[in-house]
Amino acid sequence: MFDTLPKAPVDRPVQCLADERPDLLSPDSPAGLRLVQITNDASGVHAHVYMESHIFTPDSRRLVFRRILNHGEKIPINIRQDYLLCDIADGFTIRQLTDEPGATAPAITPDGRFMYYLLDQAPAPDRGRWVLRRVCLQSFRRETVLVIDNPLPGTRCRPSFCTTLSSMSADGERLCTSGYLGDGVRPNGPFGVVVFDLARATAEAIMESPTFSNAHPQYCRCPDPESKHDILVQENHGDQVGADGRGDRTLPKTDASGADVHVIRDDGTQFRTMPWGRDGQEFCTGHQCWRGRIPSAVAGVSRVGRDVPVVEGKPGPADSSAPHRGRETPGAVRNEICREMPLPMFSHFAFDPTGTRFVSDCMRPGAGNWANAQIVVGSLPDTPDAVLKVRYLLESGTSFQNPQATHPHPFPSPDATKAFFNSDVTGQPQIWMVEGFEFPE
User: Fold this and answer.
1) What is the mean pLDDT of each run of 10 residues along the chain (441 residues)?
2) pLDDT at position 75, please?
3) Side-by-side strand order, sheet with 218-219
4) Peptide bond before 330: cis, by omega within 30 degrees of 0?
5) DSSP 100-149
6) Res 1: pLDDT
7) pTM, whole model, 2 decimals?
8) Which of 26, 211, 346, 382 lies 20 to 30 angstroms, CA to CA, from 251?
9) In angstroms, rounded to a whole number, what is the distance separating the alpha carbons of residues 61 and 86?
10) pLDDT given for residue 250 in this prediction
11) Bridge partners of 83?
């Protein structure tokens, strides 16, 4: 049945499309920066996967990005989204890894040997199937690991509409993602956080609710025996979802306090709450990530009439009678890492594996919108009361509109010598790299 799925490497030539672009550095950029436009062809929208995605080999030599050939298509099985591997050390040569319809949610294993990904072959809720695959990053051959064409244990419907993101555990043994578990008939069906045991080739939904419509599940990268099982999960309170599993923005939110963020063990136990938002004055922006291998996380928050800082936190136990207290969660630990900045305005961000080096996009002073967002790097010591310090690198030049590929989505290489971002400054979203910078002391 599954022999029809391709196993051989994608039969496409290796390309090199990179251009040096010193002309797009600003007069205020630090001396010595090197700016490279990695992609420049018009075959589709080119974009990084997402800031916290595991898309780099550990040697910082190779990274995966995506090319979207029919951006805007909503039915997963019809989406033509290919994943490509860029070898930075080999002159930014690019090799196509996948060509199957519905490919999504890539993650590279910690040893850099494989990239796992899913095929979402669901034309509608409770129809079709998910196929977990992997591609070897040496031979580039592909193989099927698991096919899900029945409801997961304890659920009523087959999973559909897999998110574009997945996350790999620090030991490389498990993968998490999320998707729709509704029946396509009733509105406000559940979404599930799904965990794959890669050695056993099994999957289970460890939690499900209509409020996990944009869960962004992220494994903690700390390798200690307990932390490596923790998953950071976003919960969108008040969102209304149609029967087709898509958000219905014509309906009012049923909860004005917005999203919150939780930590849960990958067996579905130990539900905890992060100290962000939910107090009527502070709102989670939906951008959060672990601090590399440090078992604490950082979230972007917006404050009414004020600023958009990033705040560090460690979870507290969720009160069974009031589990969504956000900033007011008893026992949670919170650190205002932007407290020395006059008006922080961060959007997307990521950390290197040490959790001390930071890359972000931020609003230009006085701009009033995110167009042409700045790219900055920062330092955050591994201490309980750490303060974030940042340094300006350049203007991204991007429009910061729809599609998401026009958002910079910046992140560092594992060795933190390079930073990567998206920009449509040339008229179409492409991927970019900057190096030669220093982090602030």
Assistant:
1) 76 93 96 97 90 98 94 70 96 96 96 97 88 98 97 95 95 97 94 97 96 95 97 93 78 80 97 96 96 98 91 93 91 97 96 98 92 97 97 97 92 98 95 98 91
2) 66
3) 218-219, 230-235, 260-265, 272-273, 316-317
4) no
5) -TTEEEEEE-TTSSEEEEEEEE-SSTT-SEEEEEEEETTT--EEEEEEE-
6) 41
7) 0.96
8) 346
9) 8
10) 62
11) 66
Residue 206 Cα to chain centre, angstroms: 20
pLDDT in tens, 145-190: 999 999 999 999 999 999 999 999 999 999 999 999 999 999 999 9
| Residue among 111, 123, 117 nearest 99 (CA) | 117
| DSSP strand pairing (62-68 vs 45-47) | antiparallel
Per the structure block, which two tokens stand in for 68?
């979207």
What's CA 42's distance to the chain center, in Å? 25
**Contact (CB, 8 A) for 66 and 107:** no
Is the separation of the CB atoms in 316 and 273 below 8 Å? yes
- In 3D, which of 34, 39, 37, 35 has the Cα closest to residue 15? 39
Beta partners for residue 433, in sequence order: 36, 420
Dihedral in degrees, nearest 10, Cα atoms 365, 369, 374, 379: 70
**Order of all β-strands in the sheet with 333-335:** 282-291, 294-303, 310-314, 333-335
Tokens, residue 361: 């996009």
CA-based nearest residue to 37, from 438, 347, 439, 420 = 420
The DSSP output letter for 401 is: -
Tokens of 95: 């090799």
Give the tokens for residue 29.
Answer: 């950029």
CA gap 336, 343 in Å, rounded: 13
Q: What is the DSSP string of 17-56?
A: --EE-GGGS-TTSPTT-EEEE----SSSEEE---TT---B
